[in-house]
Design brief:
By secondary structure, the chain is mainly β. Among the domains are: 119 residues, Neuraminidase (6 Propeller); 197 residues, Alpha/Beta hydrolase fold, catalytic domain (Rossmann fold), CATH 3.40.50. The chain is 15% helix and 37% strand. The strands form ten sheets. The protein has a seven-stranded mixed sheet with strand order 36-37-39-38-40-41-42, sandwiched between helices. Strands 13, 14, 15, 18 and 19 form a five-stranded antiparallel sheet that branches. It has a four-stranded antiparallel sheet with strand order 1-2-3-4. Strand 26 and strand 27 form a beta hairpin. Helix 8 packs across helix 9. The longest helix is centred in the C-terminal third of the chain and has 15 residues. The radius of gyration is 26 Å and the shape is globular.
């Protein structure tokens, strides 16, 4: 409903430009009625032990064979769940579920509440498939839990409650409290603080060892981090919400890393100095018994190290080191091979993001090479020594599934080579679910074997395709042009279905443009936005989106050229887009608008202020207006600190160019935005 309200405001500012047509797409069609709701596979999960997958149906959680799609059994019936809870819970009230490694138990999250972007809390229950019993992980009277996670043996569940880490023994019902000093806005154990969660994508800050005898965990001391407060409206008496939010140049949480030994029932410090001003983005358990891997990043985010720590001796060894003159994008995963001697990860160290294998002596072997980028490693077949991954080798707007040998040979394309694909593999790697779309076609979800043979389609979005045809959807087309500086930029354009090259059309530019982002993709990724753009096209608008300098998919040099000057080139490029559009004979040069959200709101605002009147209408939703107001991990990554680079902050913050504003400007900002604060709009 919040987004619907925002879009209604956005549409209103453009509504006077063109006359309405009959049988239009409506906002209610898009956001309320679900007229264009796509098909998907609800609750799809690969089983942890067998070549089976599960989906959520009306009957419950159903188990199917990957090979044939045959329904093996309903593992948990919705009616039985209702009986066991005396009507309090049914399958529709289950927000998330997961299996233990033995496929004997199901962990259910009920009444889930979102905390921040990647965190939540819920009441967790464990359903025993064989015993047909349901038990609460913890006493519900004590409050909800976060990040409940099975032990590798499935006999225990670890979770966080009230900033402390706990273990629940499912056999005895005993609850063990690992930490006791957790306190809101002071100490957090087992889950990340706000800025780690938002900018390093670390939310669950604990991990079971493979043998289930230990838990590694973070302790965040945020006592010295400055607080930010915002008013939460909606009740008779509004409340103030206060949390820790470190801004550029300000103090971060002090991090301590521990492991808890279930046998000794004690926690042990891993020996990293909590006073060192740095980050620990990830911890992993390696394939070596009792060995932890800690990833460390300096505050400037230009040096990254991996430490191997042997327990209980706590001997540390640096097994990887990377230094750059610009920021380092940390790898999402570091994958350790079963030989205990090597690991895989991705790096941009040679200019493009590629897969490397390294040993513990930092001897690197590139697996993939070329002027294209690996997006994600999906699966490693250690027996056959193959890596399955996603990349844009077939084109910067594409994302395809490939397989390659550890030695970099026998590379094979497994998807179409002309679209945007994602995949999820079975535990054994024998099968995978591939979801593929293109610029004008909604996703098809299908099961394949590991050789790339399609076995069957799970959902083809045929009904949505029919709706798109029924409502007269236009076809997006890819565009490109060269700026005055000689840079080729790529984008997409959506024209009205009855487009006439002899007419003049108003244009709305959509931008995001943040570092490492990508909006121009050969796929239908943000479909509600696509449907809204179709509605505008029905009403006579052309809609355009162009990825400028600083975005991903074109190598590190293209992405990182914005270092220390974030916003300058990005705004110039959106102005370049408008100038290019003005050169087209079918564009009304006096009716070009631009809009964006978050970084896109910032960018549309800055482009308007520096665009010398080229934009006649601008919408900025939740924009950053002064980079000093945003969080430090994100902002310092690209600008360093205000003390080191005041010019980079001042030259690219819209607040300092307000006297250059022109055209119609609509500013929209939520007062309870925990990420980009309402302060940006007020200033």
């Amino acid at each position: 409903m919040k987004k619907l309200t925002v879009i209604l405001f956005i549409f209103a500012i453009f509504a006077g430009w063109t006359q309405a047509q009959t049988q239009q797409i409506t906002l209610e069609d898009i956001w309320e009625k679900g007229t264009f709701r796509p098909d998907y596979v609800p609750g799809f999960q690969s089983m942890p032990l067998s070549d089976c997958y599960t989906v959520v149906s009306r009957s419950g959680i159903d188990k199917h064979l990957f090979a044939t799609g045959e329904l093996v059994e309903t593992l948990m019936k919705s009616t039985r769940l209702t009986e066991l809870t005396e009507g309090r819970i049914n399958i529709r009230t289950v927000d998330e579920y997961s299996f233990d490694a033995q496929e004997k138990k199901i962990l259910l999250a009920i009444e889930q509440e979102v905390i921040y972007r990647r965190s939540s809390k819920a009441f967790y229950y464990v359903y025993d498939i064989q015993k047909d019993t349901l038990i609460a992980v913890a006493d519900t009277q004590l409050g909800k839990q976060s990040f409940a996670t099975f032990s590798p043996q499935g006999d225990k569940v670890a979770f966080v409650r009230d900033n402390n880490l706990f273990i629940s023994d499912l056999n005895t019902g005993k609850e063990t409290q690992i930490t006791t000093d957790g306190k809101y806005n002071h100490i957090i154990n087992g889950m990340a603080d706000w800025v780690y969660e938002e900018e390093l994508s670390l939310a669950q800050a604990f991990a079971w060892s493979p043998d289930g005898s230990k838990i590694a965990y973070y302790r965040f001391d945020e006592s010295e981090v400055k607080q930010f407060s915002m008013t939460l409206w909606g009740e008779l008496y509004p409340e103030e919400y206060t949390y820790k939010y470190p801004k550029p140049g300000e103090a971060n949480s002090k991090i301590s890393l521990f492991y808890y030994d279930l046998n000794t029932q004690k926690s042990y410090d891993l020996g990293f100095d909590p006073n060192e001003d740095c980050y620990y983005p990830r911890i992993f358990w390696s394939a070596v018994p009792n060995q932890l891997i800690v990833m460390k990043l300096n505050r400037k985010q230009t040096e990254m190290q991996f430490f191997a720590i042997d327990l209980p001796q706590l001997a540390k060894k640096v097994i990887y080191n990377e230094n750059l003159s610009v920021w380092i994008d940390i790898p999402e995963e570091v994958l350790f091979l079963q030989d205990g001697k090597r690991f895989l990860f991705t790096s941009e160290r040679e200019g493009y993001n590629h897969i490397y294998i390294s040993d513990y002596n930092q001897k690197l072997t590139p697996v993939t090479t070329g002027e294209w980028e690996v997006a994600e490693i999906l699966y490693i077949d250690q027996k056959e020594q193959k890596i399955y991954y996603l990349s844009n080798e077939s084109g910067i707007h594409n994302r395809d599934l490939y397989v390659i040998g550890f030695n970099g040979k026998k590379k094979q394309l497994l998807s179409s080579g002309n679209g945007w694909s994602t995949a999820e593999f079975s535990t054994t790697g024998s099968f995978y679910k591939l979801s593929t779309s293109d610029l004008n076609t909604p996703p098809v979800h299908a099961i394949y074997d590991k050789k790339g043979k399609q076995l069957r389609v799970l959902a083809d979005n045929g009904s949505l395709k029919n709706k798109m045809q029924e409502y007269g959807f236009s076809q997006k087309e890819m565009i490109n042009f060269q700026t005055a500086e000689g840079t080729t930029l790529y984008g997409w354009m959506l024209k009205p279905l009855d487009f006439d090259a002899n007419k003049k059309y108003p244009v709305l530019i959509y931008c995001y443009g943040g570092p490492g982002s990508q909006e121009v993709m050969n796929g239908m990724r943000r479909m509600n936005d696509d449907f809204w753009y179709q509605m505008l096209a029905q009403k006579g608008y052309i809609v355009v989106c162009v990825d400028g300098r600083g975005t991903r998919a074109r190598g590190a040099d293209f992405k990182k050229q914005i270092y220390l000057n974030m916003g300058k080139m990005e705004a110039e490029d959106q102005i370049n887009v408008a100038k290019y559009l003005q050169s087209l004979p079918y564009v009304d040069a006096q009716r070009i608008g631009i809009w964006g959200w978050s970084f896109g709101g910032y960018l549309s605002t800055l482009a308007m202020m520096k665009g010398e009147g080229i934009f006649k209408a601008v919408i900025a939703v939740a924009p950053v207006t002064n980079w000093r107001y945003y969080d430090n991990i994100y902002t310092e990554r690209f600008l360093t600190t205000p003390e080191e680079n005041p010019k980079g902050y001042d030259d690219n913050s819209p607040i300092f160019f307000a006297d250059q504003a022109s055209g119609n400007y609509l500013l929209i900002h939520g007062t309870a935005d925990d990420n980009v604060h309402f302060q940006n709009a007020i200033e």
